[in-house]
Amino acid sequence: MRPKPTEYEQLRGVLANADEPLTAREILSLLDRQEAFESAHRVATILGRWADRGDVEVLKETPYRYRLNN
To answer: What is the mean pLDDT of the chain?
Structure first.
């Protein structure tokens, strides 16, 4: 049995495949298992925490956009 990927790993996978920074709503729409996330707000919360650690960059536009720091 394969372990379930963490929420961050799921989001990281979407961002890794993106050609450009994405909004939380765009990320949510691209997830295979959207039911794991209640809303785009949940996506933004998780990515914000990882941004504090330096793994994700938050582009403070309207709306915020996210991309991985390489």
So the answer is: 90
